[in-house]
Amino acid sequence: MILARFRHRVAHRKSHGGCYTCRQRHVKCDESQPACHRCLSSGRYCLGYRPRPSSDRPPRIICPRPLPQSCALSDAESNAMDFFRYATIHELPCASTFQIAWEPILLELASRQPCIKGAVVALSSLHRSATDGQDLELGRLAHREHTKSMSLLRAYIDTLDHSATDDDVTIVLVACLLFFAFEAFAAQDTRASIHVRAGLRLIEARRHVTNIPCTSYTERAVAVKLRCQDQFDIFMQIFMRLNSDYVLVGHDNPYLYPVCLDPIPAELTNLDDARLRLEFLEAEAISVFRNIQKQAHKTLQADTDLRLRNKDEIDCLVRARMRTVSVDGATTGGLKAVRESLLSWSIAFSKIHDKKRSSLAQISAGITFSCLKFWFETWRDPDAMLIDQFRLQFEHALNLCVQYIEEHLARTSAPTKNDQSTPSTPRSTPPAFSTGSNVVFCLILIVRHCRTSSVRHRGISILEQINLQGVFDTAYLATYLRTVVEIEEQDAKLQTGYSGDAESYQAHEIPATARLLEAVIMPSTPPSDLQTYKKEEVSFYTICNKQDSGGDGYHLGSPRLVARNVKR
């Protein structure tokens, strides 16, 4: 008789000492010190380990470890910290859009850094005040803690010198992020933007690089690592995403330009890597854009009398001239390189295997790619009809924006005061939730360049749901976009005799001469206080092509000033 042979597992004790990163990923950790080899070999940042108990100490009663005296919490502060963990942390810029979980790092810093603790308590109290119907006591606690936290941060900065490490400076960067969120919740746009710029200037001071080959910029270029190696790298990437919102308030270019000094492999390893590659691609595209812009301005000066034109008119003319101006070989090569890189990225992105295909990180990367693609492909179109080739991509990108908003709201544990009604209510999202996601920029590009009425009006409706406190004014932006659509549809009706509903155009039914090549909001160079976007009237210059007298071509028209009352 043949006896079955059984394999007996070797007895072992399950380890609970793995690093936080491996535990989040549900994989076995090799428990190497100071960082596990599994994280390092896969390009991930190791979040470290739980404190190991000492084996030579007798058993003791388990009780919470007291905070340092400077971080001891009152009952009100303890409640605020709990609410922050439960709700507010999910409202921070870029929350849940990284595969690297940076939120535990912030909470750990709050447990040992008084200025971070104060900023957390202040933001959480202000957030809860909004959800509890403007609780006055919570509001007073929020502003008191905010003032104290800023004072503590100034004192902390005074202790830093040239020997300060990246970990030391990370405290300041995290504080800037929390202060920005606080001012956004308080609807203080100007002060919110100051904190973002402070964080970006800090990054510039730590990572500035010069003598970069093959680019048109050397000012404010910063070196960004492909793999996060410390806490500073993680929060630097958050600010690099906020850096893109610098364009939203009217700037032609972001504040910083990320560059990678290391060889960049063709494959994408994860979603964080994919999103970071897009930041590098955007910097390359902006470099090419600036070259074309300079050449367009030069030719415009040579053949046009600009003495009676104001800066906004000139900017409008330059942007329109960029479509047809002849460019040198280097710029042509740059255009080709960016286009090929975008194609390579999209192919590599499709091969990333992520268990949660609908994750915010996945959606955010798709939205950012769409933004860059639409923006890049509209510079050099001499014929305004060429953009219609992206009509299906416009609808796909719009659906991504809707999905991002729905996914984010589903993760929001506590509504704000603006969330008490249906999702269709204007400004129903939390303040600043869209910062760093490119959702708003994507919606702007879709409404501006897609000529299918149903898509454009849906895009405006979605935009009106987004609370842009701390970055821009939603009503101002929606009025601008709605006016652009109305102008094009009305001109199309006059030129073609269209008899259908005003909002039922298909893209091909809007002729080239009814399409606005540019629509530049005034002023094209925004003031530092951002109060221009708080006015009751939105003004912008438009320009479009006019058909030649012979009917065999087009010529550029003159800028036209448009003004509309803001609908709030």
UniProtKB/TrEMBL annotation:
GO terms for molecular function: DNA binding; DNA-binding transcription factor activity, RNA polymerase II-specific; zinc ion binding. The keyword Metal-binding applies. Residues 18-46 form the Zn(2)-C6 fungal-type domain. Residues 413-432 are annotated as: Disordered. It comes from the Eukaryota. InterPro entries: Fun_TF, Transcr_Regulatory_Proteins, Zn2-C6_fun-type_DNA-bd_sf, Zn2Cys6_DnaBD. The keyword Zinc applies. Residues 421-432 have a biased composition (Low complexity). PANTHER family: ASPERCRYPTIN BIOSYNTHESIS CLUSTER-SPECIFIC TRANSCRIPTION REGULATOR ATNN-RELATED (PTHR36206:SF12). This is Zn(2)-C6 fungal-type domain-containing protein.
